[in-house]
Design brief:
This protein has helices at 2-19, 24-53, 58-70, 73-83. The chain is mainly alpha-helical.
């Protein structure tokens, strides 16, 4: 999640600077306005997944691993697309 947000942030920052070349404070404000909703979404998702991913017991980790191994690829792909739906966030700069 961190690397995805970093890549999206880099793209947003580059677009903001290109759009407001002569006005750095405005470019940074535009970038901040665009990145804040993405950041909030990633933090919320991370909080929800924390217990599942970072289970503290071996039993919980085993249950998680079995559940993930049985999950059909189509479900995983759909969930990933829904989670990473933030890729259209660059439209926030316009």
């Amino acid at each position: 999640m961190g690397s995805a947000l970093a890549l999206q942030g880099a793209d947003l920052l580059a677009r903001a600077i290109a759009e407001h070349r002569s006005d750095v404070p405005r470019a940074l404000a535009s970038y901040e306005a665009a990145i804040q909703p993405l950041n909030a979404r990633y933090q919320e998702s991370g909080g929800k997944m924390r217990g599942f991913i970072l289970g503290r017991s071996r039993v919980r980790a085993a249950v998680r691993n079995v559940a993930l191994s049985w999950m059909p690829d189509a479900v995983m792909i759909r969930q990933a697309r829904r989670f990473y739906g933030a890729e259209n966030a660059t439209a926030a700069l316009t």
